Every structure is written in structure tokens, then in C-alpha cells.
Hints:
mainly alpha, 3 helices, 38% helix
Amino acid sequence: MASSTTISDSSIYTNYVNVHLSIDKLDGTNYDTWASDITLWLKCQRYIDHLTKCGVDVNENEVSRWLKIDAQLCIVIKSTIHSSLKKNSFL
């Protein structure tokens, strides 16, 4: 199985929103711990490239799938942000 998100990757992205993550919500006082936890989770899921790439950096034939996964990951990340901070969120 490929180690990055490519079209040839036979795995289907699962909707992680329904999976409970044991990550404390970002509340304005715990950024370092929160960011470390999010980064580790993305590494475990093999989606760390979503922190360093944007859709324009992806191969043309992979853009649609990459953007879909990226949006799903944004939902997951937003679920770990305290509601009082979401109004300031760029995600």
C-alpha cells in the first residue's frame, strides 16, 4: 500500500468525524499540546502532507480526491477546537 495519499492508494478514507479522538480541545491555553496531538494523529493516519501541501501542489489527477480528504480532515480538526475559538478559525 502506498504511504501517501495517491490515486493508487486502495484504501478508502473513512469519515473520522464519528471517531472519538482523545485530543483535548484547543482552548487558547494549550496550543503546543493540541498541535502536537493533531500532528501525531495526522502522521498515524498517513495524512501529514495535508499540513504542508495545498491542492495546487498535488498532481492534477489527484486534486479532487486530495481536496475531499483535506476538507474531511478540516472537519476533524475543527471538532478539536473549543467553540469560543471557532469564530476565529481559518479552517
